[in-house]
Amino acid sequence: MWEEIAKAACLILVIEGILPFLYPNRWRKLAAQLATVDNRTLRITGLVCMLTGASLLYLIK
């Protein structure tokens, strides 16, 4: 189980690194825009992402 978690964490790092690698200026602008978003919106977005990911994992498995 720990090996799968480590693999998943590595894949997250690869996916997270794609945008800054390919489009550094756009990524910088996006990060600046995210700094202006209120906490409630960020939390709702995070919750939706987590639920979507968990649902997709459930469907795949």
TrEMBL record:
The question of whether Cell division is a record keyword is answered with no
Keyword terms, alphabetized? Membrane, Transmembrane, Transmembrane helix
Q: Which InterPro entries match?
A: DUF2065
> Record keywords: DNA damage included?
no
User: Could you tell me what this protein is called?
Assistant: DUF2065 domain-containing protein
Where do transmembrane segments lie in this chain? 6-23, 44-60
